Amino acid sequence: MALDRIDVWFQDEARFGQQNTTTRIWATKGTRPRAVRQQQFESAYLYGAVCPATGTTEAIIAPHANSEYMWEHLTLISEATESGRHALVIMDGAGWHQQDLTEDFDNLSILKLPPYSPELNPIEQVWQWLRQNELANRCFSGYDDIVEQCSIAWNRFIAEPERVIQLCSRRWTKLTIA
After folding, report:
1. What gap in Å lies between CA 21 and CA 134, rounded to an integer?
2. Does domain 3-16+42-173 have CATH number 3.60.20.40?
3. What does pLDDT average to over the chain?
């Protein structure tokens, strides 16, 4: 396939839950603000993928990280890829990121990043953005609330495709013939 017909996607999953992130908050000078830190352990996994060239995104929220949910996520990416184009999905080497998952897709391939190199996957900045801007300093009543709040946070992030492009674009993903 010609390089100009390949869309580079970055994929990963992150766990969000009751053991949540605490961040700095604004407070009146001289006061000491309080942030509640839950002790419960319910959580959900947000599978996310971004195509920085177009600002296109796909996500699902699941109770576990495994190959069945990974296959469902790849299905969404495949369906979001325009006819006549090919999705190159760049991801880490998690145990459920298996090459054989792509056998069902004509328009999708997986490229695994080297071990211990999260800095090469821009979706890590998406998780950081979600935690710092939407989900930090928050308590969740249970699994359904976690799913709801993660959905709201993801939808706020993707509401501005320019933000997706700006946060996730990397020069080394521009595929051209030299």
Report:
1. 10
2. no
3. 90
